[in-house]
Design goal:
Blueprint: H1 11-16, E1 34-37, E2 43-45, H2 47-61, E3 69-73, H3 76-89, E4 92-95, E5 116-119, H4 126-134, E6 139-143, E7 154-157, H5 163-180, H6 195-206
Parallel strand pairs: 3-4, 3-5, 5-6, 6-7
Antiparallel strand pairs: 1-2
Helix pairs in contact: 2-5, 3-5
């Protein structure tokens, strides 16, 4: 284990937001990012790997102009983190359904020509991954223990099912990308997380 100060945030905050929590299914592509499997068969992802990969992804994203970055998140849990990431970095986004042909059909009203794509889930956002592959655009993906990494160029191993987990990853990714550019982020971690879930967490803590 690395020292706490080596991480982007305290380990306890990573844990509290469930960033490390995997699923009962484990894909062979993700084996090297799994720290251990609990007795209940839930995989636990290695937070050191998550932290390092967030830094690596940020370094890569910082090489691109914001308008050439497309961030995609179809499922509901991903939409707030996607919107806030796009707002923080002024990137293009698809928060909701990714329309077929967005990257491949110039006649589509949603047509875009990004130079790099960031997705919240390789499975849920498979259409975006496929079209990025077809147009030879690199893909960064937040991947859980069950995800295949086919056509993924850079993985961030993390819980991509939870609101707070995704919010934490996307906040840190936005923060580090801004830092790579010599800028400071205007948002706080809480801006990337749904208020209703924070209230529920507080209530559970008080009990």
């Amino acid at each position: 284990m690395s020292d706490e100060e080596d991480l982007l945030i305290d380990r306890d905050e990573y844990l509290a937001n469930g960033v490390h929590i995997g699923t009962k299914a484990q894909h062979k592509d993700m084996e090297k990012y799994i720290f251990h499997v609990k007795k209940n068969q839930l995989a636990v992802l290695n937070l050191e790997d998550t932290d390092k990969r967030i830094r690596k992804a940020a370094s890569l994203l910082a090489d691109y102009e914001p308008e050439n970055i497309l961030v995609v998140g179809r499922k509901e849990e991903a939409q707030l983190p996607v919107r806030m990431f796009s707002k923080a970095l002024d990137t293009k986004k698809v928060d909701g359904r990714f329309m077929p042909g967005t990257l491949t059909n110039p006649q589509s009203e949603n047509f875009a020509e990004p130079e790099i794509v960031l997705v919240t889930d390789p499975e849920t956002d498979a259409q975006a991954v496929q079209e990025a592959r077809d147009t030879k655009v690199p893909v960064i993906a937040v991947a859980d223990s069950e995800n295949s990494l086919e056509d993924i160029d850079l993985v961030i191993p993390a819980n991509n099912k939870g609101n707070n987990a995704l919010g934490t990853v996307f906040y840190l990714l936005a923060q580090e990308t801004k830092k790579e550019r010599g800028e400071e982020i205007d948002q706080e971690l809480e801006d990337f997380q749904p208020e209703i879930e924070r209230v529920e967490d507080d209530e559970e803590t008080e009990e």
